[in-house]
What we know:
There is one protein chain. By secondary structure, the protein is an alpha/beta fold. 43% of the residues lie in helices and 15% in strands. An eight-stranded parallel β-sheet has the order 5-4-3-2-1-10-7-6. A two-stranded antiparallel sheet has the order 8-9.
Amino acid sequence: xxxxxxxxxxxxxxxxxxxxxxxxxxxxxxxxxxxxxxxxxxxxxxxxxxxxxxxxxxxxxxxxxxxxxxxxxxxxxxxxxxxxxxxxxxxxxxxxxxxxxxxxxxxxxxxxxxxxxxxxxxxxxxxxxxxxxxxxxxxxxxxxxxxxxxxxxxxxxxxxxxxxxxxxxxxxxxxxxxxxxxxxxxxxxxxxxxxxxxxxxxxxxxxxxxxxxxxxxxxxxxxxxxxxxxxxxxxxxxxxxxxxxxxxxxxxxxxxxxxxxxxxxxxxxxxxxxxxxx
Length: 278
């Protein structure tokens, strides 16, 4: 069971070396390292993260936002493949076992255009993973938050079916937002997870979650919400995190959950952890 935070929470003011005992006091045991602007890390931080992993913390890593394996631009795809290979080597050097990446955009937003982009992404992933040692590293395409972005639930399943090293990253807030508020009940969320389990049962046990509440509009994601904040219309933040934890327990999922709540990751992660162990 892993509950953790994306990056270094704003409420934490100390050095990186003190982050881990600070999280441990809240019974949190996971960090998703934010390499969103590049797979770059000082030698000192590499050492700290490696020690963190060796002392019981679970490490994942979020790839740069500019990686776009579904782009129509071949140069962008080529650079993205090279970047991912660099990230895999960095991950292995510090004990990271999961790399999360966005499938990307820049495709024609039609059925045919999306299908072409997903096939291209699958081919690209299969190509660069055949050129590098993938021992102990898994790749996680993430649900996209905007309706036009690659990364619908069906597209994530398709990628994971056809790429040996890809496993599903289900960002429940992104799923909720891109489907314009679809996760209105525990039963609906459970049906979404069951769909994944039925489609890729051998990979489902390694599922990775992002969970928090989100503001969305007709084009999907607008912004992540601070833990406990209401929606602009005054309604409760959604999707419902209590329902999410209830589904994990009902489906006997031993989760790896990362909170991306706006400037309050540790508050949200602790809330979900405490619900899960209750």
